[in-house]
Fold each of these.
Amino acid sequence: MTNNDILRRLRYAFDFSDTKMIAIFRLAEKQVTRAEISNWLKKEEDTDFKKFHDVEMATFLNGFIISRRGKKEGDQPKPEKRLSNNIVFKKLKIALNLKSNEILEILESADFVMSEHELSSFFRKPTNSHYRECKDQILRNFLKGVQIKYRKPSNESDQAAEEPKAVKPSVWDK
């Protein structure tokens, strides 16, 4: 998955406005403009599209962690120069304060089943013999599950789809 795609999915799942995204970057001590955010969110075919680099993604995720969990004491983590799906997954786990069973439930909500042992292999150090690379499919399904769990219905038609209204029987039903 590209960083641009991950950013798009997070923005949608949490309904972030441009102002909120700027504030998240500011929490990680990076100034960005509305135009930069707009260009990162565009599709690759668009002429204004700009690639969202690993350092910028790591900065955004660090800011997301701070926005959800608060600033930790002492030195703040420096953004990684190179990101992997494992690091993105781990940062999202931290930001959302998720336990293994909650992550498994999120994955199941996206129709993706995984064991706790498989899941724990993604959060190990790369030098560990049980470390496993997180593939795009797993991160994509996790983000889909995050959207299912955290995205609030935006209008009445979404709410109506969730809560069917009682229908009075018509005279023709008798």
Amino acid sequence: MTEEIERADNDSPWKEILEAYFPQAMHFFFPETAKLINWERPHEFLDKEFQQISRDAEQGRRYADKLVKVWLFQGQEIWLLIHVEIQAKSEDNFAQRMFSYNLRIFDKFGKPAISLAILCDADLNWRPNQYNYNYPNTRLNFEFGTVKLLDYQNRWQELEKSDNPFATVVMAHLKTQQTNKKPGERKSWKFSLIRRLYEQGLQEKDIRNLYRFIDWVMILPKALEAEFWQEFKQFEQERTMSYVTTGERIGYERGEQEGRQKQAQELVQRLLKKRVGELSPEVQERIKSLSLEQLEALGEALLDFTGLEDLRSWLSANPAE
């Protein structure tokens, strides 16, 4: 898998940014629910609990889901299921899946959950918000909260004036969609959005977090990426701020991660060749599409492989994240 395709898997930056600024995300996207929550009490991400009720990894779709425990002002605990739909196309059974998750949470843990969805797709008309059926003696109407990022296209000035970090997240997402196949225009917007972080006077930690999100979603061809880095380095030097190497540090972190991933790919492929024989180009591409965590898991699993069929079965059960 190429660097561009790999970095286009945008579930990871969404997960990171939701964890870093969860209260701000709730206030930005779902203010009515946010008002119910006592933010002075710590919230808790329930990753293990979510894994127990989620089966969608088998489908290979792109999701960024978070199950979060919060406390209401009345004192009771409640869980929030935040779903970010990364795919750029609508899904017919989306509302049913939202209902299924909500039901599984209640069935397995006995906890009511507020279900909320952030829709990142490009279809203005796709707006799922309920799942229902109606029979003579049984009726169900399950409604859930949704936010459509496309709707913010008409609220650009509002986004520019906002100091909520998710205003930047939405701006980066929209400009990524709008500059598809327009790399020069995307480069300009990427620089503009990052410059805005400095102009807002954000702390270094916030600039780093938001820069990482922008950098991962606003992918540029290698030549333009190199130009961008030179211009950004000069920009930071001109700011003469105490963290003038922010961009370079983030770039080093990204390069270090990509280096580890490449090393893991090469090691796993060598071990597989010894274990099961020559790998077809198709299988090699499948392996290149795996995340670092999946490559490490495959490195352990292959010790028990006896042939290519074991490898194919493992890849089928572990689609690229």
